[in-house]
Amino acid sequence: MTSVTKTIANELLDLDAAHAAFERDGFLIVPNALEATQVLAVDAAFKTHLARHPEDWANFSESFITAPDVLPRTDAFDGVIENARMFALLERLIGPDLAFEELALMQRKPTDNVGELKGWHRDIIRAYERRHEIDAISVVYYLTDVGPDDHCFSIVPGTHGPGVDMRTDDVQPGMEFDALGAAGSAFVFHARCIHAGKLKLGSRERRTIHLYFGHAATPRTSEWTEIPQRLAERHDPRLPPKLYAKAATTASVDGVGRRPRDLPAGLSTAEQLIHVQRAANRRPEVAA
User: Fold this and answer.
1) Which of 174, 264, 274, 283 has an alpha carbon 20 to 30 Å from 10's alpha carbon atom?
2) Model pLDDT for residues 118-132, shown as the tens digit of each residue
3) What pTM, to 2 d.p., does this model score?
4) For the domain with range 2-282, which CATH number is right: 3.20.20.70, 3.40.640.10, 3.40.718.10, 2.60.120.620?
């Protein structure tokens, strides 16, 4: 795995090579995507939010908790969205209509239960026959080192394009690539790629920030992240011109990012997310 990671990192020295690698594999690893000082500041904000606002966090298991809607409470993560180091790459992969979609914080804690809740899946839309509709790119920032013995993101290369017809049930051990990297690295992947979290005994705690980017004119990938007014009104010539265009978008993709309209009243955002994700995981991939 280390040699593959180094190859991908070296390809990123050239945007043409990076684009070709992404088209081939559906993912890239970007070392030093965040500066060291930014990693420290953002990680501190992560821990502060976890301590002060436990109600924002969806607890899926003893090892997996996530907060999908932190932007209305704090501007501490705005700089991650607006990371200038990534814009040239993202505009190359998506185009000049690059738009921010969503942001979530995720904590993976040490555990003896290494059974993964979601298993192998594609993001946004779980239905196999609708896989070609998935058209967004995720950027996962590592706030902690992720080594061979740590919980990690695992992906099946090429399943966004050349291997798009693979079903999640067809994944066999050895097909996957484990995305390892130091704190400050970014893992960039196409949401259509089959992937999963891989849990490991003896792992250190892993903290990550998950962002999605898409095209400004398409429906939003998720209703879980509110884009606050301070971002919607931001006018900065250094940013992609349509970065926050979806702050005014009400339409969303019919998938796991849409809030069901028939949920019981009074559920928090975190409780709603748990309900939706667990319902999606119970359905076979062939379901519409």
Assistant:
1) 174
2) 789 999 999 999 999
3) 0.90
4) 2.60.120.620
